[in-house]
Amino acid sequence: MRNKNRKDNTGIDLKQLFIGSEGSLGVITKIDLLCARKSKFKEIVLCKLHDYNGVLNVWSSVSEVLGRSLAAVEWMDSYAY
Q1: Which residues are within 8 A (CB) of 39 and not within 5 positions of it... i.e. 6 or more apart?
Q2: What whole-number distance in Å separates Cα of residue 14 and Cα of residue 37?
Q3: CA distances (Å), 40 to each of 32, 61, 63, in order?
Q4: Which of 3, 10, 39, 66 is the S-S candidate for 70 at Cβ 3.0 to 4.6 Å?
Q5: Could you tell me if 70 and 40 are in contact, meaning their C-beta atoms sit under 8 angstroms apart?
Q6: Whole-number Å distance between alpha carbons of 39 and 62
Q7: pLDDT tens, 26-40?
Q8: What is the mean pLDDT of residues 11-30?
Q9: What is the tens place of the pLDDT at every residue in 51-68?
Q10: Mean pLDDT of all residues belonging to the chain
Q11: Measured distance CA(27)–CA(25) in Å, rounded
């Protein structure tokens, strides 16, 4: 009985080669990015606290009031300051 599979020797399957290389053989020629809009407001909170638990308490209170307009929270201990 004959095998019904067709022989296909058309060469390298470039799509499978690209997929197998996880994109390392590709060159990006065009890209579309969806970026979040920049906020109109920047809120800065500066306060002196004695320990990290104080930082967490202040952050929780401030983030409830300011919401998404709070861009960052930074804490430095006395050694770093």
Answers
A1: 68, 69, 71
A2: 38
A3: 24, 22, 17
A4: 66
A5: no
A6: 17
A7: 777 888 888 878 777
A8: 76
A9: 888 888 888 888 888 777
A10: 77
A11: 7
Spell out the SS3 assignment of the chain. Answer: CCCCCCCCCCCCCHHHHHHHCCCCCCCCCCCCCCCCCCCCCCECCCCCCCCHHHHHHHHHHHHHHHHHHECCCCCCCCCCC
Instruction: Say what the alpha-carbon torsion angle 31, 72, 80, 55 is, to the nearest 10 degrees.
Output: -140
Going by the DSSP 8-state scheme, the letter that residue 57 receives in this structure is: H
Q: Between vectors from CA 16 to CA 13 and to CA 18, what angle results, nearest 5°?
A: 105
Nearest to 25 by CA among 39, 13, 41, 14: 14
Q: Distance between CA atoms of 54 and 47, rounded to whole angstroms?
A: 10
Helix, strand and coil in the chain, % to nearest 5: 30, 0, 65
CA gyration radius, the chain: 28
